[in-house]
Design goal:
mainly alpha; globular
Length: 222
């Protein structure tokens, strides 16, 4: 259930990814085409992106390891749920407007890698793209903190990455047309899914004895 929630969050986030990362995959499509090795480059790009998410999941799992060892797993799940809601909704209240980070070196490197048109550069482009600032990735990392093991945290982020891939591949095929259509529904779907996932994490930590949703303390929920 925990890892599956990562995939569902990724599906909802894919609507956001189309707007943020869609221009990158469209640029790759124009540079490489989708004939022959074009498909291989596209798959390597997404593989590189998902691999970065897995590394972020492992780091989050390490961060939560000490909390789990201390017997605070339930509170970690509740905290993760609160973080998911806060990371997504607080910036929309006008907070943190003055907070900026310069990611221009990363974006410049991505542009350089796209122009190389090699299999290696495609994978590296995806890895770099996974490091770009993205609210939905931050939401997913907050969720992965609640994994019961390093591999569960990594699996959560891997499934999140896979969940975002379908729409981005669709953008590669449909270009701006698909992006415009998805942009119309994203303001409604994304907040709904974020609320559901965040509340599920909070319920999971409360140990209310609800099978799969909020198992009693002492029983794991996978």
């Amino acid at each position: 259930m925990f890892v599956l929630s990562g995939f569902l969050l990724g599906l909802a986030s894919s609507l956001h990814c189309v707007g943020m990362c869609g221009p990158i995959v469209i640029a790759m499509n124009r540079a490489n085409g989708l004939n022959g090795k074009g498909w291989e480059r596209l798959l390597l790009y997404h593989g590189g992106r998902v691999s970065t998410y897995i590394v972020l999941g492992l780091l989050a799992g390490l961060l939560g390891l000490g909390v789990r060892i201390g017997g605070w797993q339930q509170w970690l799940s509740i905290t993760s749920g609160i973080l998911i809601l806060a990371i997504y909704f607080l910036p929309r209240t006008g907070w943190f407007k003055g907070t900026t980070i310069n990611f221009q070196p990363v974006t410049s490197r991505i542009s350089q890698q796209i122009q190389k048109r090699t299999l290696l550069s495609s994978g590296f482009t995806g890895m770099l793209n996974g490091l770009l600032p993205c609210g939905m990735v931050y939401v997913a990392v907050a969720g992965s903190l609640a994994g019961t093991s390093l591999w569960q945290s990594a699996g959560f982020m891997a499934m999140f990455g896979l969940g975002t891939t379908g729409a981005l591949v669709g953008v590669s095929l449909g270009g701006g047309w698909l992006g415009k259509r998805l942009a119309k529904v994203s303001p409604y779907i994304i907040p709904t899914f974020v609320c559901i996932i965040g509340c599920l994490f909070i319920l999971r930590g409360m140990g209310l004895g609800i099978p799969f949703v909020s198992p009693a303390v002492g029983h794991s929920c996978h």
